[in-house]
Amino acid sequence: MSTTLFALVGVCLLALASACLEGTVSSNDGGKCFTFVPQPLNYAEAMEVCAVFGGSLASAGNAADSVDLAGKSVAKLGPSMFWIASTDESKCKLIDGTSGKVTEADCETKMPFACVSQKSITVKDTCPAHCPSTWSYFAPTQACYKVYYNLRWDDAESTCLSESAHLASIHSQQEVDFINELATMNVSVDCGNTLPQLTWVGLYTTDNNKSWKWTDGSTVDFLQWNDGEPNEPGKENCGQVFTENCDYAYKKLNNIDCDRSVRASVCKKAALTSI
Fold this sequence. Notes:
Elements: E1 3-9, E2 12-19, E3 25-26, E4 32-41, H1 43-52, E5 56-57, H2 63-77, E6 81-84, E7 92-96, E8 102-105, E9 111-118, E10 120-125, E11 136-138, E12 143-151, H3 153-161, E13 166-167, H4 173-183, E14 198-204, E15 213-214, E16 238-242, E17 253-256, E18 262-270
Parallel strand pairs: 14-18
Antiparallel strand pairs: 1-2, 2-10, 3-4, 4-9, 5-9, 6-7, 7-8, 11-12, 12-18, 13-18, 14-15, 14-16, 16-17
């Protein structure tokens, strides 16, 4: 049986799960783990082995402990006597695995034994998905986005890589809408100038428009090209989105020369799920 506690740390919920390791047996009260060792050793040797396990010889401080130890030992040791802890090192103790009766014995006698240890603690964070500061979180993709300005496509991708990200891939109209909102935030629309309308994303081709790829390697499953696009094979190898509501091309993809510097570039990376 495991016990789970929760602690709030910042925005994260830590799950502290305690459990006995494989091969050990939980005590009836759930607070300890027993290891039953069938190899006969004398009392001192048994104590040393238990210390290697990170514990000590199991004790039977009261009748309930005796019954607990004895009952659990049978499956591992059979109906035998085995060493348990003694408060007096000159009077070593054995417990009968059948009856639970505790008796004294010669400490040099070689017998099976039982070790006890605390349950191991496993810590798992259960943080909700979130982003570093200066990045924006989009729940449908569980990803983080950030805008940079006035870059060529290669420079934009390099900038994203420096942040452990890529130029954004797009997989739904929802994501197009979000990228558009992000790229035009606090920007005055200038429909008289085509360049400010453009936003780099991670779309590119290396085979004269025959196929298009995303720099993050994700599946190309949503390409909403503007009418007549892509065009100029071999010349316009990088993709961008029209992100200002100036004409029919609004929120549509277009391919242009990768060396053009455009107003916005949107980076994307997976959201954080740990502290």
